[in-house]
Structures are given as structure tokens and as C-alpha cells.
Design a protein that fits this description.
- With 141 residues, the chain is mainly beta.
- 0% of the residues lie in helices and 40% in strands.
- It has no helices and 13 strands.
- The strands form two sheets. A seven-stranded antiparallel beta sheet has the order 1-13-12-11-5-4-3, with no helix packed on it.
- Strand 11 and strand 12 form a beta hairpin.
- The chain starts with 5 loop residues before the first strand and ends in a 5-residue tail after the last strand.
């Protein structure tokens, strides 16, 4: 299968729309990697890469998680939790809710890529600068 890239830049065509990310729904968070990017690893080989500020409303209350030299480990409270819903907002933010009731919102950065979701078989969605989405593989359908 040849990867297909579709940029949802809305350049005079239509307003951007939110997009459901059903690939993550029902998957358990298996690991969290903290560093210059925060990586969430889910069952079945799916990952969420976070390179912007993420806002966690978790078991210990609200916390901001910002990748870098000293990221908050508050996001680790989600380990073993299961994704209840996942979607992009019209503004490019990534919103994930968990079975425990916790929620994670990743901002869209005005100047750089802010997050990506990967999965099996070439599934890839990247939030580009200004919240525009680039989509490859089965995610383009």
C-alpha cells in the first residue's frame, strides 16, 4: 500500500472539522516515556507522541504536562487505564478520555508540530503548525 498524505489546511475550501480517532478506543495504556517528547504506548502497537503542552484532568486533579528536560510525571497516573474516546478538535487539539474519567487535551502549537498518533498498517495523523492535520495511510479514509 502506498502511503497517502492529505493536509487538512482548509485553505478556502471548508472549515476544519473534528475527527474521531477510533483506533485508540478500547486500548489500554501500557507505557509512558517522558523526555523531549512524551510518548504514550497503547496495546496493539498504537502510540501518541506529544511535543506540546498537554492538560491532564486526572485522578490527582489537573496538571500540565510539558515535554522537555523535566516533564511532569502526572501522566503516569493513567497507566493501565483504557481509552473511552479519542478525537481531534476543529482547532487541531487532541482530546482523549479514559474509562476512569480522566481526560487529556494536547494543545495545537502555532509554530510547530504538536502531536502525532500512529498505529498499525501505516496509520498516522500529525498535528502541524496552526492545528492543521496531515494524514497518511488508513487514517486518510
Amino acid at each position: 500500500m502506498v502511503p497517502v498524505m492529505v493536509a487538512d489546511n482548509g485553505a478556502g475550501r471548508r472549515p476544519r472539522q473534528g475527527r474521531s480517532l477510533d483506533l485508540l478506543v478500547g486500548r489500554r495504556l501500557e507505557y509512558v516515556w517522558l523526555g523531549h517528547a512524551v510518548v504514550l504506548g497503547f496495546a496493539g502497537g498504537c502510540q501518541v507522541l506529544i511535543e506540546a503542552v498537554a492538560h491532564l484532568d486526572g485522578p490527582s486533579g489537573p496538571a500540565d504536562v510539558e515535554p522537555g528536560d523535566d516533564p511532569s510525571d502526572a501522566i503516569a497516573t493513567l497507566l493501565s487505564d483504557v481509552v473511552r474516546s479519542a478525537r481531534t478538535r476543529e482547532t487541531g487539539e487532541l482530546e482523549i478520555t479514559f474509562a476512569s474519567g480522566a481526560g487529556l487535551l494536547v494543545d495545537a502549537d502555532a509554530d510547530a508540530e504538536s502531536w502525532a498518533v500512529t498505529g498499525p498498517d501505516g496509520y498516522l495523523i500529525v498535528c502541524l503548525a496552526h492545528g492543521e492535520l496531515a494524514v497518511w495511510g488508513d487514517a486518510a479514509a
